[in-house]
Structures are given as structure tokens and as C-alpha cells.
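Usage

Read records sequentially. Each one opens with the input sequence:
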Amino acid sequence: MTSSASRLPGDPVAARARPGGGTRDHRVDALRGVALLMMFVDHIPQNVLNRFTLRNVGFADAAEIFVLLAGYASWLAYGRNFDRVGLRAGVDRVLRRCARLYVFQAVMVVVTTATIRRWRHFWPVPVDFLEPELAHGLNSFWRVMFLDALPSNLNILPLYIVLLLAFPLIYLLIRRGLVLTLMLSGGLWVLINVDPTINFPNWLDPDGWYFDPLAWQFLFTLGACAAVLAGRHGGSLPRVHWLRVLCCAYLAVSALEAFPWSLWGLPDLRPFAVAAPDKSVLAPLRLLDVMSIFYLVQSSVVARRGAEGRLGQVMALFGRHSLEVFSVGTVIDLYARLVFTTFGDGWGLQIAVNVIGFAILWGLATVLDRRRVRQKEAAARAKQAAADRSGPALSTPAARAVVENMH
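and closes with the structure output:
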């Protein structure tokens, strides 16, 4: 699975944050929206559109982008909140978010299991759609609910839950220093790459979690550190010309190496023909790939303007509601795979599945965004009403601060 995403998901509050305290920056939301749609496509093996996603032009794919942005968004949503409300209240908010993630994970597990078992009453379904232990019996279902067993395509949210639970520790380390944080986190990542057997247990897979949290925590931490650095430079990463050139050169080589030449019937133009880097431990080539993409986007004025355009705003719409979009997209992916497997993957069904799928996700994001706007407007009206009732007493800064804290 890829991010079997998201919000292998972000946080709605993070989507509204202004790292530099100035004009709102939509790049993170837009990039996350792109990652979500790519994950939606990649999770349907028969979908012809997955020939055009990020994994075909680089070592990394949408999962890496999703986790990196999760770390970035977590700092905006929770890290700065710790400074305002204190560590204890901040941790409580993180735990509530983790509980919400778990609820979405549990719902997806139940829907997936029930759907496949019911579908088998009418049409044959390959056993690889669900691990045999769940396909032929529910005696081990409790293991899935306790995250002791992670079925394929349902392993991104558990990763995000673990990373978010570790965020208070990451916050404390960042407060001690970015260099110290990156050294400790990077050291653990190196250890896992040297010895991939160090992993969380997975009853369904003797190798452990497909996304090893002990390795992927480095990408999450890099995202949080990048948010801190961007906050010191007006919301963008420092623009260093030679570094941008280096990133572009690396991505060009990565694209040549990862492109499926044989699938397109083209001669193999790979300069080195290296084996695909291990995704489970976030191999160095994958890490460099996603970091290059992120740096080029977050240091680019052009990317910032593009995120403010019409297409960028559509992508940002998906990104602002990544948990819901990812979860519904995962369920749609399941039905799309069942339809293609049962009835074929001809052009008619290809068009129908993709059009219907994207339309559902767009409609969901639109409804959620309208609700968000209404809630924001209602909060503003309530705040203004409280200010009006307070009258002239609000003329002093201290009085205004009291009212502000009430909300």
C-alpha cells in the first residue's frame, strides 16, 4: 500500500496556520491534496492513471510526501499550541486527535472486512484482497482492532497514530535544538536501515509493519523541523540557489531510474539501473527524493502563486480535509478493485470508476469545507457579540485579552 492515506492524514487546524504570520500559504494543503489523489489512484492496481503518478518518475511516492507533510502540519497545529496552553493541555489535544484517527481506522477495517466477505457470496474474490486469516474467519479480528495485525492498504493511519503519539517528545527535543533533534532522529533511522529487522510486530507479516515507524519517524521529524525553519523565514524555506540546482539534478536522475521504460515499450535509459529502494525502512534514495521535492516547493515563489490559483485551490480543498478524503478514498479504492476484478478493466469502467471516485471525493471535500466556513463565521459572530456585550470595558488591552481567552 501506499499510504493506505492520509491525514498518512494532516490536521484541519494546521491547514489554516500561517507559518510566517503573514499572507496565508496554501502550498502545504495543495501538495497534500495532490498526494491524496495520487494515493487514491495508486491503490487501484488496474487503474491506468497510476502510470502517471509520482512513483513512476521518482524513487519516492505519495506516501512519503504525506508523512513529511504530516510532520510539518503537526508542528503548526500542535507544536505552537504547546507554547500557548502548556504541555499537558497540548498532549491532551494530541491524544484526542489520535483517538479520532483510530476511529477512522476501525471503521475502514470493519467496512473492508464486511464488504469482501459479503462480495464473496456473489462473485469470486482473490485471497490477496484480504489476509486469509480475516478472509476465512474472524477469530483474529481483535488483533486488527488492537493494531497487532495490519492488513495491506490499511497501514497508513496506524503509522500516523504512532508518529503523532511521539510528537510531544519531538516537540521537547526541538525546543532543545533542531540539530540535536535531527541527530537523534536521524541516528535511529540509520540504525533501522542497517538492521531492518528492528520493527513493530505484525501478526500478519513476520517482517513487521510495512511502514516501519522507527524509520519513518525521521521523515515526520524532518517535516516538523522544516515548519520551525520556515516559520523563521516568513513561511518559506530559505532559497539557496546551489541547493535548488542539486535537488533538480537529483530528481532528474531519480526520474530516469524509476520510470517504467518497459511498461511503455521504450528503451531502458536508466544511467545506473539500481534496484528499487526499500520503502519499509525509508531507504536513503527515497528520503532524498521526497526532501528534494518538498524543498523545491516550499522555497519557490512560483509554487506559492500556483497554490493560490484555481487548480491549486482545488488541490488545497482536498488537502484541508485529508483524513476524511483519505478514508473515503480508501473505501472507494476497495470497491474499484472489486469492480475491476469482477467485471474487467475496460475503458468504460476505467472512465466510470475514476469519474465517480473523483466526484465523490470532491463533493465530500466541498461539503466539509462549507461546514468549516460556516463554523468559522459562527465563531466570529459569537466573538463579536461577546465584545458588544462587554461594551467600553474592552477599551483596555487587558480586558480584550480576557475576552480573547474566553474563546
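Summary fields computed downstream for this record:
- The longest helix spans residues 347-390.
- Residues 1-22, 398-407 have pLDDT under 50 and may be disordered.
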